[in-house]
Amino acid sequence: MQVRYILPAMMMGDLGRALRAMASILLLAAAVPAHAEKLSFDHRLYPPLKAALDSGDADRVAYDASNPRYVIDLIAITGKSAANWSEALEIIARTPEKKVRTARDWVAELRGQAGGSCSTSQTTIAEDRASITFERHSPNCATARAETTITRVLAGKRSLFAVSFLLKGAPDEATRRQWLALLASAHIE
Fold first, then answer.
1. In this structure, are residues 19 and 13 in contact, taking their beta carbons and an 8 Å threshold?
2. Based on the number of CB atoms within 10 Å of its own CB, is 98 exposed (0-12), middle (13-18) or buried (19 or more)?
3. Is residue 11 classed exposed, middle or buried when 0-12, 13-18 and 19+ CB atoms within 10 A define those classes?
4. Among residues 48, 79, 41, which one has the least CA distance to residue 62?
5. Which residue, among 61, 14, 62, 71, has the nearest Cα to 39 in the 3D structure?
6. What is the pLDDT of residue 113?
7. Which contiguous run of DSSP H or E holds residue 179?
8. Is the distance from CB of 102 to CB of 125 less than 8 angstroms?
9. Which of 74, 77, 143, 154 is deepest in the core (most CB within 10 A)?
10. How does pLDDT run across 140-160, given as a tens digit for each residue?
């Protein structure tokens, strides 16, 4: 079974249901309008994420729908909680706007925000007409959220989604391959 994120359900603030669904790895079941776009990915492709979700520990998940046009879920894969993690998965559901309508627009915005005063390298890994996967390294940067970030930005007809692995360090090659496989499985329904 795949983890599914449904933008309108998140925007309605249905956190309890979303947490139960993620914790039990069940399909997020909600009455949603037929036009809702859903992000799906196969969480089983990265066993540490599956274990974090199977743990049922609500402290591992931070959900922020304070801006219904920019909803954020952060799942701590390793670490004590969503506030104190060393590896995490972040999922952002965003409503397109005038400046940011496509995956390419959002990636350009993200790249412009990166780095600050730190040396940051960014590499595009894969790109198709509706998505871009890229990697960012910010070694020895005290202001960076993570030393390594691999993100896939996907564009639907009415929604944009970003799925990112964040690591305070550098992943080994096996971990990196599993992250990329999970990101490649992400699609909008």
1. no
2. exposed
3. middle
4. 79
5. 71
6. 76
7. helix 173-185
8. no
9. 154
10. 888 889 999 999 999 999 999
Report the distance separating Cα 25 and Cα 29, nearest Å. 11
Backbone angles phi, psi at 168, to 5 degrees: -85, 75
Radius of gyration of the chain from its Cα atoms, rounded to whole angstroms: 16
∠53-102-71 over CA atoms, to 5°?
35
Tell me the residue type at 92: I
Can you tell me whether residue 53 is helix, strand or coil? Answer: helix
Q: By CB neighbour count within 10 A (0-12 exposed, 13-18 middle, 19+ buried), where does 157 fall?
A: exposed
> Which 8-state DSSP code applies to residue 44?
G
pLDDT above 90 (res 119) = no
Token look-up 């959220």 returns 145
pLDDT in tens, 18-27: 444 444 332 3
